Amino acid sequence: MTMRQMNITRRGALAAAGAASLAAPAARAQAPYPAGQSVALVVPYAAGGASDVIGRIVTDGLQSRLGGSFIMDHKPGASTSIGARHVARARPDGLTLLLGTISTFTLTPLALRNPGYDPITDFTHITQVCDSLYLLVANPRWNSLEELLAAARARPEAISYATWGVGTTAHMAMLDLNNRAGIEMLHVPYAGSPPAMTDTIAGRTDCMFALLSACKGHLEAGRLRPLAVPTASRATQLPDVPTFIEKGFPGFISTTWYSVEAPARTPAPIIERIRGALTEHFADPAVRAFMATQGMAPPEIGEAPLIERIRRELAVNRELMAKAGMEPT
Question: Which ranges does the record mark as transmembrane (predicted)?
Answer without folding.
Answer: none
